[in-house]
Amino acid sequence: MTVEIRIRELQGTWVVRAGGAVLGESSSALELSEGDLPPVIYFPRSDLAMAFLEPTDHRTTCPHKGDASYFSIELKSFTLENAAWSYESPKDEVSRIAGHVAFYPRDEIAVEQL
């Protein structure tokens, strides 16, 4: 079964917040659409406060994108375990997301356009 994956550059400025803290703001965010799944926003690492993101041992493999590594978000009063992910060496078809980080949709995390 072939899944269509589309990556597009987003217009405007995008921000990601966790627990009220701004983790990043970017005018170079990418949107990845994969089949019928909701689109996912990927932020360049250079636009994120990576000090909030702690690498974990969790890993997954996507047949279309490759191997994903995960990060927990360390906030003052709590930690969001495995709340963000990145494809360090994605498959060629989605190579544009290399060096980017995406965030799971959950109550404590907001990804929005300014």
From TrEMBL:
<dbReference type="InterPro" id="IPR038694">
    <property type="entry name" value="DUF427_sf"/>
</dbReference>
<protein>
    <submittedName>
        <fullName>Uncharacterized conserved protein, DUF427 family</fullName>
    </submittedName>
</protein>
<feature type="domain" description="DUF427">
    <location>
        <begin position="15"/>
        <end position="105"/>
    </location>
</feature>
<dbReference type="Pfam" id="PF04248">
    <property type="entry name" value="NTP_transf_9"/>
</dbReference>
<dbReference type="InterPro" id="IPR007361">
    <property type="entry name" value="DUF427"/>
</dbReference>
